[in-house]
Amino acid sequence: MTPKMNRIIGDYPKFIGDVVAKWCDINHRDMRLVEPFSFIDRSGTKWTAPKRALINGASIPRIFWTFVSSPFCGHYRRASVIHDYYCRYKQRSSKAVHLMFYEAMLQDGVPKAKAKILYTAVAWFGPKWTNKVTRDRKLP
User: Which of 27, 115, 129, 132 is spaced 20 to 30 A from 88 at the CA atom?
Assistant: First the structure.
């Protein structure tokens, strides 16, 4: 267990807070969180995207938007915020991050079949890194 993995006692899985973000001038998809946003998975591990984290919505290729939805739509939006942060800063293994994404989607009401498709897509085609995680990096 890494130092950032906090175990929480209580009713979970659940989200904590609201996604509050501002558009960045960098491009048409990047946003920066104005407040921290968290998810507690079923094991009690807290996943937090801190204030100032850069996010860009679900990384769904445009060709699939008709079938799945666009990056900032759908019930997977909150799960994608946490997933974006952990994919960018790699504080936990890619396998754990992708599984958290699946669990968070289910918690937010994504049908199990659709959540499995999105999970499989990120597990197969999304970013991968080893269990060697980088130490906390400062946000820009």
Answer: 115
